[in-house]
Design a protein that fits this description.
CATH architecture of one domain: Orthogonal Bundle
Structural class: mainly alpha
Radius of gyration: 17 Å
Distance between the termini: 37 Å
Largest sheet: 3 strands, antiparallel
Mean pLDDT: 88
Strand content: 5-15%
CATH class of one domain: Mainly Alpha
Strand order of the largest sheet: 1-3-2
CATH superfamily of one domain: Winged helix-like DNA-binding domain superfamily/Winged helix DNA-binding domain
Number of helices: 5
Number of strands: 3
Length: 115
């Protein structure tokens, strides 16, 4: 979440959930914890009071900037043993998994049907 907000901020919770491929309640939970730790701010959108806008605080930006290189290195080391073909296969598999998750999350986030 910090990385997504470092790229673009502020973001509303729904957009952020779509970017991260997680449902709204998960975004709300994580956002509440990050807000409590002083890493993000959560404010009402002036144009739409139903929406919360999330943004990194200075402390959140520092934490992201300090940890991002390490996270990139961890990813590099995880992929290092894979051949180029294996990496392509992994990307295809992960793409299928994310698409399936997004379909399920979208279905779950729909409001209930009205009678």
């Amino acid at each position: 979440m910090l990385a997504a907000l470092a790229r673009e901020s502020p973001l509303d919770q729904r957009t952020l959930g779509g970017t991260l491929a997680v449902d709204r309640s998960t975004v709300a939970d994580i956002a509440a914890r990050l807000n409590e730790r002083g890493l993000i701010t959560r404010t009402r959108d002036r144009d739409d009071a139903r929406r919360n806008l999330l943004a990194l605080t200075e402390q959140g930006r520092r934490l992201h900037d300090e940890t991002a290189p390490e996270m990139i290195e961890v990813g590099r080391r995880l992929l290092e043993p894979l051949s180029a073909a294996d990496r392509q296969h992994l990307v295809r598999c992960l793409t299928i998994m994310v698409a399936t998750h997004e379909r399920r999350a979208t279905y779950r986030d729909r409001p209930p049907a009205r009678d």
